[in-house]
Every structure is written in C-alpha cells, then in structure tokens.
Design a protein that fits this description.
The chain is α+β, with helices and mostly antiparallel strands. The protein is built from eleven helices and 17 strands. The radius of gyration is 23 Å and the shape is globular. It binds ligand EPS.
Amino acid sequence: MFTTRLRFLTAGESHGPSLTGILEGMPAGLRLDEATLARDLARRQQGFGAGARMQMEQDHARITSGVLAGFTTGAPIALVIDNKDHANWAQRDIAPMTTPRPGHADLTGALKYGHRDLRVALERASARETAMRVAIGACCRALLAEFGITIGGYVTRIGDIACELGDPPVEPDVLFDRFAAAESSDVRCPDATAAARMHEAIAAIIRERDTLGGVVECAALHVPPGLGSFVQLDRRLDARLAGAVMSVPAVKGVEIGLGFAGTQRRGTASHDAIERDGDDLVRPSNRAGGLEGGISNGSPIVVRAAVKAIATTLTPQRSVDLATGEPADTRYERSDFCQVPRAVPIVEAMLAIVVADALLEKLGGDSIDEMRPRLHALRQARVSQLPMDGTPWRFGYGS
Ligand code: EPS
C-alpha cells in the first residue's frame, strides 16, 4: 500500500450492519476519543448536493480496541460505524438489479466476481466505505496535531465554476484561512462569490436530474522537511500521496503543486527559488507543492483531486440488461447529486494517513514521548545545519 509504518483495512457494505476498520502502527500515548473522530465524520455528511442517505445516518465511530482511558496503547485501533439504514434493508426482498450503471463498479464487478446480481458487488464498491477512511484519517490527524501539523481542504471547482486561487501559496496562514472560510460554505469553497455560483450550479444540476463533479484541494501545513525519499520508487512521498488520493472513489486525477498547469510554463517559471533569510533557507513560492525529489521540503504540501460526476443519475444512461441481453436504460439508485463538497474530508483523511505514516517513518519510536524529542532534533533548512564545506573530493567506488 501507500503506507509503511501504518497499516489499515476497512470492511463493511453500504447497507450491512456496520463498517469496520483496523489501524495498526499508531504510537502509544496519543490522546484520542470518539468525539474527535465524530467531528470529521460529521463534516463528511455535510455539503450541498448530498443525497437522502446522509439525513438518515449520524455517523459515529466507536473505538473498541487500542485506546484505554483516553490514550492510545500502541495496540491496533479498531473502529466500528453502525449503518442506521441497515434496519431498512435487513431481511428485505430486493428487486433484481441487472442493468449496470456506466462509470460505477457494476459491470466491472460483475465481470470480476460473477455474481447473479449487481447489488452484491456494489454494496462494497459504494463510497459509503469512505466513512471509515475519514475515521481512520481523524486518528492520524490527531497524531499530526501533536507535532503541530494541520490538514485541511476546500473545493476549487464545481463543474465549470472555478474559484481562481492562483499558485499554491507558501504561507501556511493563507491556506489555514481558506480551510476556515470553506467550513462556513455549504459547498466548501473559501471564496464567497464562487461559492454562491457553485451552489447555483448544483441546484441547477438537481433540477436537470443529473450530477456534477469538481476539484478538491487539500494541504498539510507545518510538515517538517525530510519526509519521504527518492532512494526507492515506493518511498517517494508524492507517489504515496497520489496513490492514496487516487484510491478515493470517483477520483480520476491527482495533482501536486502546480500539477498539470505547470506544463504550460518554462523551467525558470516552474520552480521555487532558494533564498537566504539569515540562517534560514526560504522559498518565495510553492509551485512544487511542498515536495521535491519525493521528499517534503518544509513548505505546505498541496494536493488536488479531480472528482468526477457521480455515476448514479436520475436521467437514465444507456446500458444493457445483463439478465436479458437487451438494451436498457439505467434505473435510479438513491445517490448524491454532487459529492464534491463531501469529498474534502475524505481527501484530507488520505493526506493525513500518508503524512502521519511518513512522520512515523522519519521519527521512529513506539510512543509520543519517544517521538517528540526526535521532532525537535530534525535537521531544518538552515545553512548552519548542513555540513557542506566546499572541499574537493574524488569520485570512486570500493577504494
Ligand atoms: C454513501 C452512501 C451511499 C451512497 C453513496 C455514498 O448510500 P445509499 O446507496 O444508501 O444512498 O449514497 O455512494 C455513492 C454515491 C456511490 O455511488 O457509491 C455515503 O455514506 O457517503
């Protein structure tokens, strides 16, 4: 997977009794409670364009292992989120579902597993599973907070309505202010004018019985330099981040820093100059999105996810009924009209998991107490901490 020190698994189906998660590798001594997890779970439920399921659920993760008397023990953390909607499904006779929705996992799931009904696969393929990722991400966010690292995010595009924010900023405060502004917007966009237009775009798509995608931008602030490595491809932090974010259902693209927009610039306008401010090495810009050579450079890590419009549409799409072999229109399944605002805490969770993992890798140790002094001992981007003296040397191996 995209983690080395942390391991996690989720289990559970959209309308089964519960979602289950196990997170292993968290150090001992971290203060953690269910209320902390509940905050992010509630955020995942909010956002204009959500479907009716979110009014039904009140996602709450119970901690059933790995946390005693309010602190992690170092043992695996086990989490359970009950599906309230399960009561409406248990022992219910289910109408056959044999016409796959283009873009969902229906047809690929049928081809892979050979079930007699599409629902068997889609229950697990459903983005309901992301509730558990958010709970696991909240544990990682709590760990990061102990070391002064903050994760947040916002929406920069819904359909063709974009919020123009310019290049990724180097100042953490600019990003922090965006996180705060986004939380007071029902589309999670920090720019009030763009947010109003995004809200209207979602309202229009609901009237038009269709769905809309968009772009989510997330950032990790105050990440120390030196997380990740170029020495092996699977240790590159950018690759691990991209894999983690790409694993979110409906994500079709991931960018870091300038991302694809950077391809339109020449080299001298694509990078972040290195300047001296006293002993400190500082950067006037953050086009790299906090990552150079697969390693964090101390600037905010900025990652963007392209979220496609949801596959379940009130307006039917052309498909084939696999039971009859005849052309057929898709049938509507309850779903979101625009899940992009709700995707923000999900992408944040993936970022939190990957950065927490990389921090654990860098600091080592089994407890917060062991880690803390190691954070303070990390080499900073300061000229005096780099041992270069300009002495000539001879290149050679084994002699
Ligand atoms: C989701 C719950 C699901 C879906 C949604 C995500 O609930 P239900 O199927 O009962 O409406 O609404 O999943 C999808 C949109 C999808 O296409 O899989 C949730 O908790 O986020």
